[in-house]
Amino acid sequence: MKKQLTSQGKPFNFTRENLQKAEILIARYPQGRQASALVPLLDLAQRQASGWLPREAIEYVADYLKLSFMQVYEVATFYSMFNLSPVGKYFIQVCTTTSCQLRGAQDILKICHDFIQQGNEDNLFSVCEVECLAACVNAPMVQINDDYYEDLDAARMIEILLALKAGKKVNPGSQVGRQGSAPERGSKNIHKSKKEPPS
Which of 18, 95, 27, 93 is nearest to 60 (CA)? Predict the structure, then answer.
């Protein structure tokens, strides 16, 4: 799904606002090293194109940075963050690496696939399996667009999907109320408190 290059059938140009952002991004790099802005510019183009990089956007970024199409295409196909064909408004990436796998990622992935198959006429959702998203302590987890949803179980994943379909906001982060990567059952202290010496 993600690596099949697709045309949008019309020219791509940065909007005026994104052109200003592109100039700011390029200015971060030393003179003669503007090509270093390639990944941020591809990300900017993907956001403008509703979550994917059409062929025309890759060509545009290549021209903008004075690079060959192939140089830009290689980067776009290397990183899993870039989608070369259209995705839904909610792009769900399910981590299935070791920690998530051990804690139920296959169930989460199946729920997402089943949910989409049962009714995605409006193409609101796209799902794919990805490698580690670096939230192992809060496994299983998914990334939906830019947000992480952690400490999931099957029931909570269904609730999230239904809420998004209904246009409701869903709070990202731990879905069991845990603070960051704190222990799941609360803080534990291995040191006993010191008793006052008898007087």
Answer: 18
